[in-house]
Every structure is written in C-alpha cells, then in structure tokens.
Design a protein that fits this description.
The protein is α+β, with helices and mostly antiparallel strands and about 140 residues long. Helices cover about 25% and strands about 45% of the residues. The chain is built from three helices and seven strands; from the N terminus they run ββββαβββαα. Strands 4-3-2-1-7-6-5 form a seven-stranded antiparallel β-sheet. The mean pLDDT is about 90.
C-alpha cells in the first residue's frame, strides 16, 4: 500500500484591502482517493478552513487560469517569485455577497509536492474502485 504524501507550507492569505498575512497550509494526498488533494488552512493552531481540491486542476493551474464556481486558480508572477493564486468562494452573506478568501502559494514547493503525489499515482493511472465507493455511499445513506 502506498503511503500518504503530506507537507506543510506557509502561504499568504489576502485579508481584504489590508494586505496579506501568513497562515499554514497542511497539504495531503492519499492513493485511496487518487484524484484529490486535501488542504487544511490553520493559524495559531486554529483550523480556518478545509478544502478538497482536484489534483489535476492544481497542476494545470500552475500553468494557466482554471476553475469556475467555488474554486478558481491562476498563476501569478511577482518579480522573482512565481505564485499560485487560489480563490475560494463560500456561503452567501446576508447582504447577498459571498464569503471570499484568496490565498497565495509559492509555486516551487507546491510543484514539488505534486511531483511526490505523481510518484505515488501517476497522472492517468488513477483507479476508482466503484464497488467500494458504492458500498460507502449505501452505508452512509
């Protein structure tokens, strides 16, 4: 059985118009869910948010803008730094606007993490055990 891939990165959370501040992003990959990456954002030991992202989408976002709906990603260049900008849209606020979070990740360590996941399950070789998935869905229902 393949072991999970884990890493923790310091990322920058865009806090409205007041600039960016650092938070931790704990990234995970498990071959049991080969298409997904998990990310847990934390600050001072508090979990701010948990997201499940499409692994292929994250890899593609390092090259070009991707995503519609609740998750959008695009590469950005800031002089010597190459970043990935992730925009997350959440629930609708009482005034009709949606909660929005923007996170900037340095591209180099994210690309290294993706290479580690590709060593566990190569892109295009992902397998989904449909019988196991259906049994899990039926057990939850």
């Amino acid at each position: 059985m393949n072991s999970p891939v884990r890493t923790t990165l310091v990322v920058q959370l865009q806090a409205g118009d007041s600039g960016r501040f650092p938070v931790l992003a704990h990234l995970g990959y498990d071959a049991a869910d080969p298409f997904a990456l998990t990310v847990v954002f934390a600050h001072h030991g508090r979990v701010l948010a948990r997201w499940t992202l499409d692994r292929e989408m994250v890899a593609e976002a390092l090259l070009r803008p991707v995503g519609v709906g609740d998750v959008r990603m695009r590469p950005e260049s800031r002089g010597l730094w190459e970043e990935l900008c992730l925009e997350f849209l959440g629930d609708t606020r009482p005034g009709g606007e949606r909660h929005r979070a923007v996170v900037y990740v340095w591209a180099a360590p994210l690309a290294a993490f993706l290479r580690e996941t590709h060593a566990v399950v190569r892109p295009g070789e992902e397998e989904v055990r449909l019988d196991d998935f259906l049994a899990q869905v039926m057990a939850e229902g």
